[in-house]
Structures are given as C-alpha cells and as structure tokens.
Amino acid sequence: MMPPRTPATMTLPNASRNAVREGMVGGASRPTGSFTVVMVRGGCGVASNVSQPGHILSHMREWLVAGALVEASDGVLLVRNVRRGGREEWSTPGGVIDAEDDSLLEGLTREVEEETGLRVTEWEGPLYEVVCEAVELGWILRAEIHRAVTYEGDLRVEDPDGIVVEAQFLPIDECLVRLAPGARWVHEPLCEWLAERWGPTAPRGYRYDVHGSSHEALSVRRAT
Asked: Which of 48, 61, 129, 174 has an alpha carbon within 20 to 30 A of 72's alpha carbon?
C-alpha cells in the first residue's frame, strides 16, 4: 500500500497503473501486497487531516485502497507482489480503487478476481481502516480492509498490471513470516486481527506517520 515515491502534483491518464507498480498498494496487497486504479480525493478532506502550510497541502493527494481477508481451511490468502527493480513483498489481495468503480466493494471484488481468480460474492466489514500520511512524498493513503464471507472459483493469477505473480493460502504462522518484511501499516494491523479476530461491529482504526523521501529511507511511526 504505497503510492508513488515522488509527490503527486498532477493526474495523468495512466497515473493509477504507475502508482501500483511504483509502490505497495495492498492489502495488502498491490498500499505496498496493496492496502493492491486510483481514485483521487482532494480538498478539505486532505486539509482536515494534515496540519501543514497551505502550499504543502495543495500538493497532497489521497489514495483510496481496499484489501481483502480471504480464508479457507488451509489458511489465509496472500499474494506475492513484484515491484520495479525486483523488490518483492507479500500481502493480502486488493489494490487502489479505480475511479470507474461504482463502489469500494465493487473495486475490491474486481481486484481480488484479477489477482487470485476468486470471485467474492459476499463481504463483511470494514474490519479495520488504515490511514497513512507521508508529507514529504505528498500523499495520504486510506485503506479499508474487508473479509470475504463467501467466494467461488479456483486460484489463478491474471493480474493485468503484472505485479501479482503468485497466490497461496498459507497457515497463520507462515503468513506472519512472509508479511514481516513489508510495510508496517500493512502487516501490523493484519497481524493484530489474526491474533484477536474482532468482527465488523467493532472496527478498528490505525494511523501512521510516514517520513522520508524514498522507499529505502522511510521512517514509520504509529500515531496514538
């Protein structure tokens, strides 16, 4: 679940696809897995969350991401994402929501089917929401994580972005190992949910402050 590495100041026709390839979008899965194509939110919604001078706020962009928790008898579904430069990470399926999607859940259903071949027919949630602010990089990311109640189909990977290259149901212990190297705002909330498993009637919120101007030098602090 990570938008572009450089501050976003304009919207290009292919900005959504580039955003996914440049960083983790995910839920997982493409915000970085994926929080996995972009719906831009702007104006007062951004300003209300960031106490920065107006000239910085004018360059802030908000990215809406959805992630999916999909389970089976043999574990939790994770996908392996390969980014530019060969960087890899595991996440839950999902991605940034297209402006063409009628709703967040419609976009999430599409993302999951593209990345895994499974079509979710019933959702519950959100179970938790993640908000990340990266002032130096010029973005705010909001991710909603929903759980698949029912789904159909067989596992196959047909990601049109070419980022998701593998999908597996994995035991929880193995999930924790594969998620650990990824973005903190992806693996930390998910690991807490796997340990406590709260329901959609008591959703949780997570907030992270992200500092730094490159993926390699990011500093992430969980806000209280």
From this structure: 129
